[in-house]
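[09:14] KT: can someone run the structure on this one? pasting the chain below
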Amino acid sequence: VLDAPRPPDVRFKDESRQVRLILGAVQPRAGQRILDMGAGSGYLALLLSSLVGPAGHVDLHNTPGWLSQFPGLHPDVLGPQLARANIGYAVSAWDDLEAQGVYDAVVMGQVFHDALLEGADLQRMLERIARALKPGGRLVIEDHDADPRMSPPRQAALHRIAKALVVETATASGLALEASMDIRAPNARDNRRLNVFAPAQRHRTDRYILAFVKPAK
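[09:31] RB: done, structure tokens below
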């Protein structure tokens, strides 16, 4: 599956993105419906579409702000590039998701902090994600860790978000934390008060993967 066709310039990023760990946390299965929220150019969405197969479906989500900033992410442009019959396209603000009981899983790969950067209400966003999940559905969040003593806007400005803040907000939205995994860059020490794109920090940040489950009723 990891050899599935996708833009060639991202193939070499599989290891640094820890894609196997993320997919392992999502636990995609044939026939499932999954939302890749903040999908960008569809890196994860394309992999997920192979895993859910022709009977499944993946919605690739981006925000109106991202489409304005990056016209190449528009469904009319991106759709023909990806050319997958089981990939759909959703455009909405982070905290304006309308789906109800549709998805088996929602994944946010290194974009939770972007929601805050775009002014989203994190509590509202997570409540709407919880509503969009089927009972027993999973939310998987991967991001760069931050110093929790900093304010959330300051964390987001560094392209980070503290793991503790994500857990607190998600559980307050009715989701149950099932698994937490820390990803440490080998032989590197991360200063969580610095921007992830600073030369000394790039590819050396502490990251985490959190898996939440919507309780079955």
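[09:33] KT: thanks! The CA atoms of residues 38 and 62 lie 5 Å apart.
[09:34] RB: yep, looked fine to me
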